[in-house]
Design goal:
The chain is an alpha+beta fold. The protein is 21% helix and 27% strand. It is globular, with a radius of gyration of 14 Å.
């Protein structure tokens, strides 16, 4: 069975390896999305984030801090989280699609990128970074 489907989701761990969660591809309102299930919470990300983030990281050429933050909190400049909500990214704003749950891009997307062989991600207790493969 193909991995990354609702029936066979990717089983992932947050970068510090402290929490388990799962992700899978789906379609909602004619948009390809990535569904992220963390306990009883469900987040949605525009699936374009995978290619767009990989392209940005390749252009960046070095490690980039993840900087995960909730939607209601500002993201640290120069981080993956800040890029994932920046008006200058390819979608012109948030890759997170579910109002109130659009943040944490820097927590949940990087391990999927690592799983897909697109990036390297550090797994320290704090201050993790990623870079393109």
């Amino acid at each position: 069975m193909e991995k990354g489907t609702k029936q066979n989701p990717w089983q992932l761990k947050t970068p510090p390896l402290t929490s388990d969660y799962e992700m899978y591809r789906d379609v909602k309102d004619d948009v390809d999305i990535i569904v992220c299930k963390v306990g009883s919470t469900t987040l949605h990300y525009d699936a374009r984030c995978l290619n767009d983030l990989h392209t940005m990281l390749k252009a960046h050429g070095d490690w980039m801090e993840l900087g995960s933050a909730d939607e209601q909190k500002p993201a640290k400049e120069g981080t993956v989280e800040a890029w994932g909500r920046s008006e200058s990214n390819p979608v012109g704003g948030w890759y997170g699609l579910k109002k109130g749950y659009r943040g944490r891009f820097g927590m949940y997307v990087p391990p999927l990128m690592e799983e897909l062989g697109l990036a390297e991600v550090e797994h320290n207790p704090k201050g993790n970074r990623m870079r393109a493969k």
